[in-house]
Amino acid sequence: MQREIPYGSWPSPVTAAAVSAASGRIDGARFVGDEVWWGEGVPEEGGRTTVRRRRVDGVVEDLLPPPWNARSRVHEYGGGSWTTGDDGTLYFVEKADQRIWAVFPGDVPVPRTAPDEGARFGGLSWQEGRLIAVRELHGTTKVPRRDIVTIATTGPWRVVDMTADTDFVAQPALSPGGRHLAWVAWNHPDMPWDRTELRVGRLADGIVAEWTTVSSGETAALQPVWLDADDLLYADDPTGRWNIWRLRLDADLGHEDVAPADADTGGPLWVLGARWFARLGDGRIVATRTDGADDVVVIDPDTGDARSLGLEATSNVGIEDVSGTRVLVSGSSAASPPGVWLVDAASGASERIAGADAEWEDEWMPRPRAVTFEGPHGPVHAFDYPPTNPQARAPEGELPPYVVFVHGGPTGHVSGAASGKITYFTSRGIGVLDVNYGGSSGYGRAYRERLRGTWGIVDVDDVAAAAAGLAAEGRADAARLAIEGGSAGGWTALAALVRTDVFSAGISRYGVGDARALAAETHDFEAHYLDGLIGPLPRDEQVYVERSPLSTPDRFRVPLLLLQGAEDEVVPPAQSEAIRDALAARGVPHAYVLYPGEGHGFRRGETIVDALEKELAFLGAVFGFETPDVPPLALS
């Protein structure tokens, strides 16, 4: 029987500790003989990333005990921090020194690269009997030098530069037999979802002797995959959608769209390990297609026919590895935290084999409702998660408070999978509206480029339109709408608080408050990102000033919670502290929490727990409901 309790105060078994335990990130998965190996974040161990294996007998064990931490810092966001050799050796990048280490299960790791404070490695892969990586060298030039390298796996330390020539390189792919190397390259000021080049080079003694650009150079080509020595697949978006294309090197470089679709097989290349498709052993292709939510399909490259596998995972889906027709897929579902699924592409059978399990029953999980609202710049896509609790209901006539989630990027994307954090709120009677504002990926290039030159305008208008639209439907209390975002999403949240009157409270996780400061202080990967989002400096400096929330501190008028990592090099603490000072000067109720040891994105279990409880306590204090299972939060 359901008890009548005001929204926000519903009793819930979904604790912050349980959310933290289920929040481990998946970082790649591989078939290793008859075993499955995967990388997974461990919040309760300082957020480190371990590599685990599932033995043939079903037993799961760690291959990297504490304090080893497989995490790359190439581009700051890393990716591809580990891979395996043919003999079952694990190669990984240790976060502390960014060297590549090697370990056979049961042995002690040994370094395979020399100590070098300026060197970082990422995007590790084992191809044609070689260990290949992207290397980033700091300290010699203003722009770090990046190249594709091979690393000796026996004997003395030896790293061989295969190719460089551009500011950024990614996703190297050796052809069968090792005669050619394909890779993705781009230069400042482009971002890899704006414009890249797909290059193919001829190898001589393991080094690229000559190369040619085989894409147009005006699109965002991604992820080369060889079918055979002269037949190449890759993702590209000349039609406005990332589809899979085929290039035959022996046929005048003819290009063919393998299976045209109004959906994306591809996405923003934030991390080096991202993969959206792979070749099956029978010649077919298994791929992710995204149009709002993710769908895993099998494509016949000869006919273009595509068949959905109906996989449970629908969010952040990656195609990690293939063995015959068996596929390892990472992602999240409407009922499961991040995990790995073992899929049989022939039969469609699937099993979730890795990742933390939720400590609460399925009945506590909200079911997402895909919604679209009309905004001043066009349609705005979002997912609505209503309050869901099998044991409580609200008094008749009461409308629920809502938190509008704003993802980062801003080229990020949400796909309708209820995370532990969303369930933490909805199980207590607080709705969540997760918005894919203009600029988000997952809806094609035109939707993504709606934000070009308009960051701080289109995103703000879109989240405000979505929140107001939900309230107009009678699903949310218009007087109790909060907005929360991290990083670029924090910028949008802060800007929405100073440019609109839709929201009554805000939560910023390491949010951007000053665009000029971000441009001056941020790392090289994003050094020119704002050129496309706002405009180039110094030409458009006045626009930066006008758009920045900190430029109008007198417009901060509603309570604000600021959460910040002390070691954040993407958005340094100075940004949050400047906002805190502006709030204090204006007498606006607020709280500022600085977490030692955390960078850009919280990974430690104790931080995840504390931040989530403080968010709930903050909403209770502002919106006037009791939060009996968390300590109250005093606002300055």
Task: Please explain how this structure is put together.
A hairpin with a 5-residue loop joins strand 22 (277-279) and strand 23 (285-291). Helix 4 crosses helix 5. The longest helix is centred in the C-terminal third of the chain and has 19 residues, at 605-623. The mean pLDDT is 95. The protein is built from ten helices and 38 strands. The two termini are 40 Å apart. It is globular and about 70 Å long. It is α+β, with helices and mostly antiparallel strands and 636 residues long. Helices cover 15% and strands 35% of the residues. The strands form nine sheets. The chain has an eight-stranded mixed sheet, with helices on both faces. The chain has a four-stranded antiparallel sheet with strand order 2-3-4-5, with no helix packed on it. A four-stranded antiparallel sheet has the order 6-7-8-9, with no helix packed on it.
- Total helix count? 10
* DSSP summary, beta strand count: 38
Strand content: 25-35%
User: What would you call the structural class?
Assistant: alpha+beta
Widest beta sheet: strand line-up: 30-31-34-33-35-36-37-38
Highlighted features:
single chain, 636 residues, alpha+beta, four-stranded antiparallel sheet, 10 helices, 38 strands, 15% helix, 35% strand, globular
